[in-house]
Amino acid sequence: MKLEIDESRCKGCNLCTMVCPYKIYRPGSRPNRRGIYVPDLDQPERCPNCRLQGLYGRRLCGVCALICPDQAIRWVPEKPFEPMKVVIEY
Amino acid sequence: MQGNIASAEGALAAGCTFFGGYPITPSTEVAEHMATRMPKIKGACFIQMEDEIASIAAVIGAAWTGARSMTATSGPGFSLMMENIGYAVMTETPCVIVNIQRGGPSTGQPTMAAQGDIMQVKFGSHGDYSIIALAPSSVQECFDLTAKAFNLADRFRTPVFLMADEVIGHMREKIEIPDSVEIVRPKPLPEGALPFAPGPDGVSGFAAFGTGRHIPVTGLTHDERGYPDTTNPARHESLVRRLVSKIEDARHDIADYSIVNEEAEYVFVCYGAPVRTVREVVERLRLPDTGYLQLRTVWPFPEGLLSRFPKVKAFIVPEMNLGMMAREIERHVSVPVIPVSKIGGDLHTPEELVEAVKAAGGLL
Amino acid sequence: MRDDWLREDRLPHIYCAGCGNGTIMNCVLEAVEKTGWDQKKTIFISGIGCSSRAPGYILTDSLHTTHGRAIAFATGVKMANPSLHVVVFTGDGDLAAIGGNHFIHACRRNIDITVVCMNNHIYGMTGGQGSPTTPIGKTSTTTPYGADEAPFDLAELAMAAGANYVARWTSFHVKQLTDSVLTGLNTPGFSLIEVRCQCPTSYGRRNKYREPVDYMTYLKSHAVLKEKWERSAAPGTELPVDSFLVGEFVRRQRPVMGVPDEA
Predict the structure, then answer these.
(1) How many other CB atoms are there within 10 angstroms of residue C98's CB atom?
(2) Which option is the CATH number for A2-85: 3.30.70.20, 3.30.530.20, 2.60.40.10, 3.30.110.170?
(3) pLDDT digits over B78-88, tens only?
(4) Measured between CB atoms, which of C10, C41, C65 is closest to B57?
(5) B196-237 pLDDT, tens per residue?
(6) Is pTM beyond 0.90 here?
(7) Cβ of C213 and A14 within 8 Å?
(8) What are the 4Fe-4S ferredoxin-type domain coordinates in residue numbering (chain A) (predicted)?
């Protein structure tokens, strides 16, 4: 599991940077081709859903994807799901 | 049977399963009769809405579920419905609206007859559009034309209007109710076709809600998928031209009329209640050199019928308004068109029509 | 997946950057997804305004109707075919101003539809005019010296008119909102979920909430949980200025219309 910001949909409102309890997003610093400051996903490894979803077997948090008014944030599967290989960081 | 009730029975015979209405004189009996009959029919729904705007809205909503749906009203309620009638035209929603006309403007004469909405039905909503309007002149025609209205609505995917008036609506006559009426359902939407892609006749197939076609219906200018496209002039032009031409091109096909004495020199053109006086004059008094054209389809106006009278010297148009259709007829002919206007609620008397023929130069 | 319910070919949508309507659409789709409803049998209906563009981005049958009449159209759809699930998106102007009559009558009939009101306190589509929910003192293009009419409380209105389920959340409370919409969808009868949301372009710009985050911060700090307030505040105490209650206002079983017959 990893998070992805769809640049073609993002309008740079920065709501994700506000709501994420783990502060994994940072306001963008450079405009993209459409002149939009897309937030940077600078600490994706902190996302609890990406790390722990397999362990809990349900979706955790997900506030960024829900609050994104432009449906630009989503999870994409990274590799086939193998429950035993999930690494838990404390 | 009363005209209003015949109209309700005609609708039920045609398989009408949804009625949304609001009480208004002189159309109330339609709603009352539906309220009595519909709860006993499986799958049918009668609902009294909070106003006429909501009535027509509910009717359009119900039509999209595939139900044959209808409402009935009179002048003031008809004025309220105008915005959503435009919506029904734009979204190509088949539905039937019965208008039992009364004296206007405004509250006017609730219990008296008039034909003052005959222009409003065609031009009342904003923008260019075409609709189908039928005008009964007897209780039997109330039944027949209401049933027919549903077929036209489904075939052309458009709102269809039954423009009766207080006299016809409240008149009691004997009628013959057939065992079954002809039912024409809309063309289905072919598998894989876009929901607003027109067929060869300009009409697109219809798929009801809940059948998995995911149709986005919008009153905005839209493309064939139904997606809004409001800033493209060519798109708007082709859409509106199609909405108009799908009806106007078929006007002689839609036309429902009677012609008496094609050799006449003085021809009455009439619709609705005045037809009854005209019949009296032409058929019973046998006034020489006169004939008539009764229009049961008022809109789209079948102007080709006017050329069926080769010897005509003048068209005489008795109407219960200040000459609305007379003006439409004038556009299409070169002989004089003489309006015989009468408002206030009384029908024309035969004497008045005889006078009109004399004034036109006949009976000398 | 939520994305299965979106018309991907229509995205990105027309909403301004930071508009709360997109958030609310996400939450509603998330809730609809959880109900397990058949996409074929779910109908989204809307009137006119920013909020009302939402159904156009959702891959179901939808009706984008005339201003204020969405609930009347929904009544027709639901009564003619009670097996369909009907959700109405509406805005504050659409619901409380031009559609106020249809709104209270649908509550009175308790017809089985769910109405999600995206209340941004302004007419956004037409450029920021005052609406019946613009708070006193707030500026808009038609209240340039501050609104002086008392605003409507939509949740209280729906409750008084007889709706079976009424809740209010904000576009900040996405999780609670999703749960609330889900409860509304599953409650037979009329459900109203009022969602206070930000309009940075038209409302925020004129009322010192220029960035979307500014208004979110306001929503977060001024929303008072109804249960908590009732528990802690002495009876009769007024809410602090500018604060508003959020939470579930009513859940009841009045007689309903438009539910399929038990066959």
Answers:
(1) 19
(2) 3.30.70.20
(3) 999 999 999 99
(4) C65
(5) 999 999 999 999 999 999 999 999 999 999 999 999 999 999
(6) yes
(7) yes
(8) 1-30, 61-78
